[in-house]
Target: Peptide ABC transporter permease
Amino acid sequence: MFAYYLQLGLRSLRKNPLLTLLMVLAIGCGVAASMTTYSVFRATSNNPIPQKSSQLYVPQIDNWGPDSSKDNKGEPPNAMTYTDAINLMRDKRAKRQTALYPTAISIVPADASMLPFRETSYGWYADAFGMFDVPFQYGQGWTAGEDESHASVAVIGKALNEKLFNGGNSVGKNINLNGRDYRIVGVADKWNPEPVFYDVTNTNGFDDPIQVFIPFTRAVELKTPTSGNNNCNHDPGKGWDEWIRSECVWLGFWAELPTKAEADAYRQYLNGYSAEQQRAGRFRWAPNTRLRNVVEWLDYQKVVPQEAKVSLMVSLGFLLICLVNTVGLLLAKFMRRSSEIGVRRALGATRKEIYIQFLIEAAAIGLAGGVVGLLLTGLGVMGVSLVFEPDIAKLATLDVSLVLLTVLVAILATVLAAFYPTWRAAQVQPAWQLKSN
Model:
């Protein structure tokens, strides 16, 4: 019977091509608008490391005091001082931990025909590779011992390895960074979590993949400046040494705490550390600390752009308007067939069979609308850069899941829109239709 009802539905669609076209276009445009904006919202609100997002935490310590935190609703600074980061690294209260910052590094190619250039680079500790599940194409990360010895070692990204070494195994070779040679110990495979959870403060959640990793200790020893934010609540003085001893906040910090008990213990440790700094005279206020996991941190930092949320709501409203128009068109289409319905009912068709017939017909319209919507969604994803920033727009992709979701939403939306017209059609009284005809 399904095949029979589908045949009847398709035959009915061909009888009123203009009306059918209007419904298909309404559904297609509404679905395309909503799916295009959803593709952006999905990418920006994605959990970048779902397997560990509940185990990785950002500690925050208020080193500026309540007067400076008034504008931030009592929240501590989003970054950390060098003093606090080194103290936390020294105390080793987490399973794994790292301080990190984006470094201003120039790459000097061995090929004299190539000019020096810059790539996204970071200084962090050896623990970071395991914490963040960084995959490797060749080799591995450096060791904790090399952190302590300030070793001149580096891990490079896959794209940089292809650019400098034609994609071969470059482990053991040297790379010139800021005029100094570093021994390559590993080549990271493609690793680009979106959003960029590990450094939201400097990237707003979106950036190019890291191509150079060097030990944090080596970067600080060489006084390598940060290419990220540097916020100070007073004059830090002159020179590198005075700056890193100041209360300027410029470092990110992450701790891996696999269990709730460990997270609770770390919170107590942060409060105890702040109380210790208060007793030492560095802080003149009560401890004010925070500890947020990946999801909480992204939410706190409002990584999902406001325009993505607004666009999604507007597009869903547009889809609703399209569905209301579809309801009207379906109602007009179905009620014009009252005589057909009356004859079928008089010949023994039940209301259930009328429901099934017309809902299958609506699903066929939804399928056609989904195909049109899919084509328009593809165009929308290509043109999303006209609305959003390039770093955000590049995240919107038309993958298999979005294709299936587009077609599914079109069919389900049309079937839902057809319920009222179908109900009205099923209420047709056979006797009235037979008498009037």
User: Anything to note?
Assistant: The chain has two domains: 2-45+305-436, 56-300. The chain has a mean pLDDT of 87. Residues 2-45+305-436 form one domain.
